[in-house]
TrEMBL record:
<dbReference type="InterPro" id="IPR036291">
    <property type="entry name" value="NAD(P)-bd_dom_sf"/>
</dbReference>
<dbReference type="Pfam" id="PF01370">
    <property type="entry name" value="Epimerase"/>
</dbReference>
<keyword id="KW-0520">NAD</keyword>
<keyword id="KW-0413">Isomerase</keyword>
<protein>
    <submittedName>
        <fullName>UDP-glucose 4-epimerase</fullName>
        <ecNumber>5.1.3.2</ecNumber>
    </submittedName>
</protein>
<dbReference type="GO" id="GO:0003978">
    <property type="term" value="F:UDP-glucose 4-epimerase activity"/>
</dbReference>
<feature type="domain" description="NAD-dependent epimerase/dehydratase">
    <location>
        <begin position="4"/>
        <end position="261"/>
    </location>
</feature>
<dbReference type="InterPro" id="IPR001509">
    <property type="entry name" value="Epimerase_deHydtase"/>
</dbReference>
Length: 335
């Protein structure tokens, strides 16, 4: 039975991926600091869905089935990371732990360098000494910045990020490439494109829109609604990661980068309209100018990932938002 380390296991993608791999028979070790960037209760409720109760800092907790061991800790604590790698012999390592949020990185820059850069180095160092079959880490579509060539391809230049968050993700790619080259670690980075779905992040626009709609508040629509996003449903993301797990690059260095998205950009106003339909309530809209750090359009070319794994997103926007809306109304007890 393969053992997998998932960092950020209480996060949005980490939670869904942990659940998926557990159901496939993997033994999972999870780590998450459960910070207060957004409501920690949501993170703890995700953990409860995985069978983890009463997680406390620095203490191991196991689920009843014994296929998930979890510790609340930060990956920039190198001593804890070293202990985890000493405790378990991992076949695969999936590093998703990071401080998310493009706009928040403008106001809280130190948190981003600590979590996203200092928090990645102990993972790389541990993989250097105990090489897993494959290390997969989270990058971001935001590193494409204001590139005008679309769709975005992995071979495009990404040397001009327009937010600190994007800069830290570019740094992650450089760090990972260096470690792969020096120590022959099989490493793959994934550039995620606007992931949405149930149990999502409350700081994401679609989640904020849903809450505002039911609380009678206005929603802020930036660039006067003239934005396009490659919205990607969470199940398509986890499916892509699973497909890639046992397919590390065989080139030298054993390093690769893939876009993982829906490859069908949607106008923001169309997205809002579909969300309103699924929630059964109309939003009060306020139009705002473009925000610092935002990009006009995201559009993933997923041809490379498709050739490698057969990846093909299967969830259309209406289906995905329908599932999100049902979860959202139940979780927050809205009528």
């Amino acid at each position: 039975m393969s053992r997998v380390l998932i960092t950020g296991a209480a996060g949005f993608i980490g939670f869904h991926l942990t659940k998926k791999l557990m159901n496939k028979g993997f033994e999972i070790t999870g780590i998450d600091e459960i910070n207060d960037y957004y409501e920690p209760k949501l993170k703890r409720d995700r953990l409860q869905q995985l069978g983890i109760q009463n997680a406390k800092p620095g203490t191991w907790v196991s689920n009843p089935d014994g296929n998930l061991n979890f510790i609340q800790a930060s990956t920039y604590d190198k001593d804890i990371v070293e202990d985890i790698f000493d405790k378990y012999d991992f076949d695969y390592v999936i590093h998703l732990a990071a401080q998310a949020g493009v706009r928040n990185s403008i106001d809280n820059p130190y948190k981003y360098t600590q979590s996203n850069i200092e928090g990645f180095l102990p993972i790389l160092e541990a993989c250097r000494h105990k090489t897993p079959k494959h290390l997969i880490f989270a990058s971001s579509s935001s590193i494409y910045g204001n590139n005008t060539k679309i769709p975005f391809e992995e071979s495009d230049a990404v040397d001009h990020p327009i937010s600190l968050y994007a800069a830290t993700k570019k740094a992650n790619e450089l760090m990972a490439h260096t470690y792969s080259h020096l120590y022959n670690i099989p490493v793959t980075g994934l550039r995620f494109f606007t992931v949405y779905g149930p149990w999502g992040r409350p700081d994401m626009a679609y989640f904020k829109f849903a809450k505002a709609i039911f609380e009678g508040n206005e929603i802020e629509i930036f660039n006067n609604g003239d934005l396009k996003r490659d919205f990607t449903y969470i199940d398509d993301i986890t499916e892509g990661i699973e497909k890639l797990l046992d397919k590390p690059s065989e080139d030298s260095p054993t390093y690769d980068i893939f876009n993982i998205g829906n490859s069908h950009p949607v106008k923001l106003m169309d997205f809002i309209s579909t969300l309103e339909q699924e929630l059964g309530k109309e939003a009060k809209k306020v139009y705002k100018p473009m925000q610092p750090g935002d990009v006009y359009k995201t559009y993933a070319s997923t041809e490379k990932l498709n050739k490698k794994t057969g990846y093909q997103p299967a969830t259309n926007l209406k289906e995905g938002l329908s599932v999100f809306a049902e979860w959202f109304l139940n979780y927050y007890h809205y009528k």
